[in-house]
């Protein structure tokens, strides 16, 4: 495993300064067209000369806690200037499953929390029920860890019902096991389980110590249609991700994968949503190419999710990237660790992979901020922080802002998914990102 991660670090290492995009001059992601080193802490003007401000945006204490915990630096000084706002909604801040750090993912409550934290875009992962309705769940078969299903009568309809701890089989409960009416009777919970529990209620435990069960009293599950209506009411945009599923069930339910992909777009068309407000995503390249070819207004900003999972060979080759470009893909979304590296000085810098992607003219969205326990730094934080496996640059939770600053200013990402959007919104508002 150590050799595999050594190979990963070498492949992502940057050989030279990322000078061509080191600073955001003439960058239309920013109000005023560029990052402003002389920021006075009084907010940013919109195109009408009014201060950007949104009374509905509430960031809570966490961003301030993180900024105050940073070591003295130019970045900390800049972020401290913003502590009194004004704050506004930013498309740079994307609610990952809503606000899943503390709210049950893909629930009404989670989406509302993400919007309240200034996320300009909120995600619904899209899967399907037995009767072909599209619903918001991270996977077709995750109900046993994200809802209360195993403690209900619907447990017996699961593909593999919960029957007790090992040696009993692990449960598998799918949205496609249920009709929409049955699905809507469930309650969302934090994504966790206790496989050794001897009761169904005990199995539903296991929430990590750095998350919380405080907001699980309500966990309202939503259809894609309901999530669209909610986002529209809250004034946020949409990034639906078409999830993979059992090929046989997809065929039985929709006929083909293409019809499944089309049904997702049809929901937005039926709701009258402007295509410019939708970033359709998929890890399946065929879905993205289908939208580009058959729904070009939506395909224009369809997002190809770049799955990189070490110790497999990381990233797409240059030839693969060039092929995607030729096929019309404009936006690629790798995980954040693939876009960053740590240089010999212990500084966070753009990775070679980030340079290759930007060099070919792609826009980048990345994932996922605030999805790791960084209290002891990157060395023990897992998947998203592999670029700093020794914890040279990210030594504590407050150091996450150093990584975010490099992603924004040097990699020039369009936006980043976060399990706690307020953390990203604070940065975006301080830097003037739209």
The CATH architecture name reads Alpha-Beta Barrel
- Measured by DSSP, the beta-strand proportion falls in 5-15%
Number of helices: 16
Q: Provide the number of structural domains.
A: 1
Reading the helices and strands in chain order gives HHHEHEEHHHHEHHEHHEHEEEHEHEH
Describe this structure in words.
- The protein is an alpha/beta fold and 434 residues long.
- The chain has 16 helices and 11 strands.
- The strands form 2 sheets. Strands 1, 2, 3, 4, 5, 6, 7, 10 and 11 form a 9-stranded mixed beta sheet that branches. A two-stranded antiparallel ribbon has the order 8-9.
- Helix 4 (108-116) runs parallel beside helix 8.
- Mean pLDDT is 93; it is low at 1-24.
Keywords:
434 residues; alpha/beta; TIM Barrel; two-stranded antiparallel sheet; 16 helices; disordered N terminus
Topology:
Blueprint: H1 2-12, H2 62-68, H3 74-80, E1 90-95, H4 108-116, E2 119-128, E3 134-136, H5 143-146, H6 180-183, H7 200-203, H8 224-234, E4 237-242, H9 247-254, H10 257-270, E5 281-282, H11 285-294, H12 296-299, E6 303-305, H13 318-326, E7 331-333, E8 340-342, E9 348-350, H14 352-359, E10 363-369, H15 400-411, E11 415-418, H16 421-431
Parallel strand pairs: 1-2, 1-11, 2-4, 5-6, 6-7, 7-10, 10-11
Antiparallel strand pairs: 2-3, 8-9
Helix pairs in contact: 4-8, 10-11
In short:
It contains 16 helices and eleven strands. The chain has helices spanning 2-12, 62-68, 74-80, 108-116, 143-146, 180-183, 200-203, 224-234, 247-254, 257-270, 285-294, 296-299, 318-326, 352-359, 400-411, 421-431; strands spanning 90-95, 119-128, 134-136, 237-242, 281-282, 303-305, 331-333, 340-342, 348-350, 363-369, 415-418. The model is unreliable at 1-24 (pLDDT under 50).
């Amino acid at each position: 495993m150590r050799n595999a991660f050594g190979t990963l670090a070498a492949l992502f290492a940057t050989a030279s300064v990322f000078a061509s995009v080191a600073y955001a001059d003439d960058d239309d992601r920013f109000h005023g067209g560029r990052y402003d080193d002389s920021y006075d802490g009084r907010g940013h003007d919109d195109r009408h000369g009014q201060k950007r401000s949104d009374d509905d945006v509430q960031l809570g204490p966490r961003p301030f806690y993180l900024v105050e915990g940073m070591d003295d630096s130019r970045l900390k000084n800049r972020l401290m200037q913003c502590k009194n706002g004004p704050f506004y909604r930013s498309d740079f801040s994307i609610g990952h499953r809503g606000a899943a750090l503390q709210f049950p993912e893909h629930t009404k409550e989670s989406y509302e929390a993400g919007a309240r934290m200034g996320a300009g875009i909120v995600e619904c992962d899209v899967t399907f029920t037995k009767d072909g309705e599209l619903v918001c769940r991270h996977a077709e078969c995750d109900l046993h860890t994200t809802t209360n299903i195993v403690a209900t009568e619907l447990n017996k309809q699961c593909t593999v019902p919960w029957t007790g701890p090992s040696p009993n089989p692990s449960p598998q409960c799918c949205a496609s096991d249920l009709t929409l009416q049955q699905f809507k009777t469930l309650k969302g919970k934090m994504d966790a389980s206790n496989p050794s529990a001897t009761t169904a209620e005990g199995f539903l435990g296991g929430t990590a110590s750095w998350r919380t069960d405080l907001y699980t009293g309500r966990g309202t599950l939503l259809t894609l249609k309901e999530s669209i209506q909610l986002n529209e009411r809250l004034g946020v945009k949409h990034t639906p991700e078409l999830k993979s599923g059992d090929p046989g069930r997809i065929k039985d339910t929709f006929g083909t994968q293409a019809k499944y992909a089309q049904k997702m777009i049809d929901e937005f068309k039926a709701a009258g949503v402007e295509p410019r407000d939708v970033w359709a995503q998929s890890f399946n390249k065929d879905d993205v190419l289908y939208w580009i070819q058959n729904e070009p207004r939506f395909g224009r900003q369809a997002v190809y999710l770049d799955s990189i999972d070490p110790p497999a060979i990381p990233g797409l080759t240059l030839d693969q990237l060039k092929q995607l470009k030729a096929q019309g893909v404009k936006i690629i979304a790798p995980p954040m660790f693939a876009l960053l590296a740590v240089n010999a000085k212990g500084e966070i810098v753009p990775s070679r992979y980030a340079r290759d992607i930007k060099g070919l003219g792609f826009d980048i969205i990345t994932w996922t901020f605030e999805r790791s326990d960084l209290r002891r730094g990157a060395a023990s934080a897992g998947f998203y922080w592999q670029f700093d496996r020794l914890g040279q640059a990210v030594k504590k939770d407050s150091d996450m802002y150093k990584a975010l600053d490099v992603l924004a200013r040097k990699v020039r990402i369009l936006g980043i998914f976060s399990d706690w959007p307020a953390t990203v919104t604070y940065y975006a508002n301080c830097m003037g990102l739209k």
